[in-house]
Amino acid sequence: MPKSLRVNIFIEVIAGAVFGLTIAALLNRVIDFFFLCVFAGAFASGVLVSVLEFRNRKKGLISDSDRSLVKIISVLVVSLTTVVTFAILAILPLNVDRSFSVWALNEMELIGKPQLRDDLILESAKFFSPNSGEISRRIDEQIRLRNIEIQDGMLQLSARGKLQVEIHRVLRHIFGLKMNYTRSR
Fold first, then answer.
1. Alpha-carbon Rg for the chain in angstroms
2. pTM: predicted TM-score of the whole model, two decimal places
3. Are 89 and 43 in contact (CB under 8 A)?
4. Is the predicted pLDDT of residue 65 greater than 70, yes or no?
5. Contact assessment for residue 148 and residue 161, using Cβ atoms and an 8 Å cutoff
6. pLDDT for 95-113, tens place per residue?
């Protein structure tokens, strides 16, 4: 594979990932449902790279002499871009959005001076209290994801939610995670 083609593929993957990340970030400001935005961003990155690959064939950067190789390269480039975008979106923003550790480090930096462990624990209880809105936000998200259903004004696990619980418990056992979030009866 010529060096110019390798450079072009690298640029396409980067451009596609940046485009997908941008789409996800902008879309989340409108619909406030990041889980859906992750998929939309990954899909958008794949679409952009597909268009770029098509353009490269039209410009003659990719020879049509071996059509099957061209198709394989195009599929691999689109797939790589989509996976890279999805991985970045699924790891970085979700970690920041859901991590107590991120909150605690940020809180300590905002306070700007050493503090007692008990003081940080008390401050976290304020932030994660029902009044902060964080708990309601998570419940609303689970309703949108259809893991929780509302019936007669009551919240209950859907079949999908029950499956999620079982998957989380299996993952806890496989990876030796703490039981705090995945206790069993």
1. 22
2. 0.59
3. no
4. no
5. yes
6. 666 666 667 777 878 888 8
Phi and psi at residue 147, to the nearest 5°: -85, -25
CA separation for the pair 78, 67 (Å, rounded): 16
> For residue 99, which phi and psi values (nearest 5 degrees)?
-95, 125
Measured CA to CA in angstroms, residue 7 lies from 10, 23, 47, 68, 78 at distances of 5, 24, 20, 21, 15
The H-or-E segment that residue 181 falls in is none
User: What average pLDDT score do residues 61-84 get?
Assistant: 76
Identify the bridge partners of residue 148 per DSSP, sorted by sequence position.
157
Q: Which helix (H) or strand (E) holds 183?
A: none
Of the chain, the percentage scoring pLDDT greater than 90 comes to 14
- For the record, the structure tokens of 174 come out as 């496989």
- Whether residue 22 contacts residue 48, with contact meaning beta carbons closer than 8 Å, is answered with no
Q: What does the mean pLDDT of the chain come to?
A: 81
